[in-house]
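Quick question, first post here. What does this chain look like in 3D?
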Amino acid sequence: MDFIEVQKRKAIAVLMLRRGKVNALNGAMVDQIRQSLKALEGDPETRSIIITGVGKFFSFGFDIPKFLSFTKDQFAEYLTNFADLYTYLFLYPKPVVAALNGHTIAGGCMLALACDSRVMVAGKAKISLNEIAFGSTVFAGSTEMLRFCVGSANASKVLYSGAMYPAEEAMSFGLVDEVATEFDLMDVAFNMAAALASKHPPAFASIKSLLRRSIAEEMIRRERASIMELVDIWYSENTWANLQDIKIL
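> Answer (accepted):
Ran it through. Tokens below.
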């Protein structure tokens, strides 16, 4: 089943997440996102990319009910694959704008953090790295990307609280770059993507690498240990009990 749809408007490609009502991430979806990005990276006509969701969610994050049947080794393999995806996206040589059409939670927030810019719909939608709320930790990579976007003090606030931020509050400390109405979201995203696409591609790719490469190297250096720590906490008695209560409609 295809969970990703790609549409093109001249030099800008739109990659749409479309899995169920909440765009929950599983292994197949992670693989399809990577495959789509790889194809667009090799397409000389594509100068920039917008990632968005279909429905009221950009992404709920992980499909937690599905992962409850996984062994520790299977879950660690999925987490490694997911971390590889956001690291690839963080270093992606072409501009990527996240158009956050709705709730952007946990793993969904990590994908958004890996992009160059984020525009979020105003209203009821929330963005969060809320793992601590159900007793889990996060990845080394997601922590570094968050710190890159919002600074260390705000990163601590986001991760320690597990708070759900509306777009306007998220923009006040840099988690989101722009806020738009539901009707204007994609127009704003296209304008952001077009502005970045207008830059000389080799120059943009070089500067992006200079800004991010050392951070990505630190992410990679610490990632495996952080994944194994996450797995141990995920399968601990307290967290495992909390996970049973998480439902996806």
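Residues 4-183 form a domain with the 2-enoyl-CoA Hydratase; Chain A, domain 1 fold (CATH 3.90.226.10).
The longest strand covers residues 4-9.
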